[in-house]
Amino acid sequence: MTVTPTIVAPSILAADFARLADEVRAVEGAADWLHVDVMDNHFVPNLTIGLPVVQSLRAATQLPFDVHLMIEDPRRWAPGYADAGAYNVTFHAEACDDPVALAKDLRSAGAKAGLAIDRDTPIEPYLELLPSFDTLLIMTIKAGFGGQRFIPQLLEKVRAARRHVAAGHLELRIEVDGGIAADTIEQAAAAGADAFVAGTAVYGADDPAEAVRRLRALAERAISGA
Ligand code: DX5
Ligand code: ZN
C-alpha cells in the first residue's frame, strides 16, 4: 500500500482545443495535475501542441503541468518545458540515449523528471535508472492517440516497478496513461500506480470535474484495499 496521495491528471488531448483555457478551468479544483501531451509527428504519427501553447496555457491556470513529450530528440526540447514552468517533464526512454543526463538537466531547470515507457518496451533495463527520476510513466496503450483500449497485460510492468520502488525505498510516482477510466483505474491502482492520466474518461464526461473526483475515489478504494 502506498501512502502518497493519489494523483489524477486529466489529459487535454481529449479537450476542445479551441477552448483550451475553459477546458482546463473545468477541472481546476478537482484535478491534481494537468496532463499535456506533446506529439511531434515523428516519434509518434500524431501531431498536437508545442511550447508556445504550453507557455500561453501556463498563465491561464494554477494547475501543475505534467508534460508528456512524445517527441524525438528530447534533449533539445525538454528543458524548454521546464523553463516554461512545467511541474513535471516526462520524455520517452525510446527517444533518448542518455536518460539520466536529461533527468539531471530537467531537475536543474526546476522541474521534476519523468521517464516514459511505451507499450513494446520492457521495464527491466530502466529500473536501475529510477533513482534519477521523480516520475515513471508506464503506457497502458501504444503512445500516440487518445481513446484507445486499455491493455491490462501492461500492468505487469507497473507491478515490477512498484516492487523495485518498494525494495529500494525510492521516492517515485508510478503513473499510468492510456485507457484509464472507471472500469480500468482500480486494477491499475491495485497493480501499484499512484498517478492516473485520463483523457476521454474526463473530457468525454458531461461533468469533467465530477469525473475526476469519481476516478480518484475508485483509485483510492483500490489502493486501500490492496
Ligand atoms: C496518448 C496520450 C494519452 C492520452 C490518453 O498517447 O499519452 O495521455 O491522452 O487518452 P485516453 O485517456 O483517452 O486513453
Ligand atoms: Zn500522455
Describe the protein.
This protein is an alpha/beta fold and 226 residues long. The protein has helices at residues 20-25, 51-58, 74-83, 99-108, 124-127, 155-168, 185-191, 200-203, 208-224, and strands spanning 7-10, 34-39, 65-70, 88-92, 112-117, 135-139, 173-177, 195-198. An eight-stranded parallel sheet has the order 1-8-7-6-5-4-3-2. β4, α4 and β5 (112-117) form a beta-alpha-beta unit. α7 (185-191) runs parallel beside α9 (208-224). It is globular. The model has no long low-confidence stretch (mean pLDDT 96). The protein binds D-xylitol-5-phosphate and zinc ion. The site of zinc ion (ZN) has 6 residues, from β2.
Write the layout of secondary structure elements.
Elements: E1 7-10, H1 20-25, E2 34-39, H2 51-58, E3 65-70, H3 74-83, E4 88-92, H4 99-108, E5 112-117, H5 124-127, E6 135-139, H6 155-168, E7 173-177, H7 185-191, E8 195-198, H8 200-203, H9 208-224
